[in-house]
Amino acid sequence: MDWQRKANDALVRLTGFQINRVGKVGPAAAVGTPAAEESFRPPADPKVDRLLVAPIFILSPVRSGSTLLRALLNAHSMLHAPHELHVRRLRVEFGTSLAERAMEALGHDRADLEHLLWDRVLHRELVKSGKTFVVDKTPANAFAHRRIAACWPDARFVFLLRHPASVASSWYEAGAGKRTPEEAALDALRYMKAVQRARKALSGCTVRYEDLTADPAAEARRLCDFLGIPWEPEMLAYGEQAVLQKGLGDWKDKIRSGSVQPARDLPRAEEVPESLRPMCESWGYLPRAAEPT
Fold this sequence. Notes:
Layout: H1 2-15, H2 46-49, E1 56-59, H3 66-74, E2 79-80, H4 97-106, H5 110-129, E3 133-136, H6 145-151, E4 156-161, H7 164-174, H8 181-201, E5 205-208, H9 209-214, H10 216-227, H11 253-256, H12 277-282
Parallel strand pairs: 1-3, 1-4, 2-3, 4-5
Helix pairs in contact: 7-8
């Protein structure tokens, strides 16, 4: 029923999980299965099925400086890094059972067709830019990192970290009273855990927001080395942004300045919410607690 589908879509948006009816799912599916773990597979023939070559994905929590990093990369002559594109939310629907059967006869399931759509949208954006590689920095991509890696086997990943308590504070401030500080911390923690899972599952380059703002030239050089492109000093003066809109990237005054601004002071250890302490320890922002003897 339509209301059930809408309710399930809302659940996926809020929690990253979906509910499947018992008896209507395949052997690998289960109630409460993460949406990112839906059935999907790599392209049957990457040279035919994919137009993009070596796309770049920034995987980061919300409010972690991804818009700043996007702006720096976009200022490079070979990199096109548009606003958040949310392509993983683009879905394909079969209008009739005949359409589904026809696609099955061609060897395509729904996920295959969605991957073709995602690739075509990003490739069109890249071709319009006249550059060589596309960069997508949508934070929610962290929840679908396995599917993105399957869709583009040659994808490259940049993991952007920031002090978890700073992420939570910024997320609370961006919410304009929509959530309490603790609710903001727990919501931001979902993204941090997704990024952590991605770091364990995928190879890539890790960047810290605090290092990026303290020495942008050194971090930009390191990223260029990882991506196999020449360093360009013009990256540091990224200039005016074409899209500054909530939901598509940062829109605050710092990013409007057109150059890298200092990060806020790091929170003191006693200011870190208890819910974020394990992640702070895991990411090296707090010393690990001593194991009980």
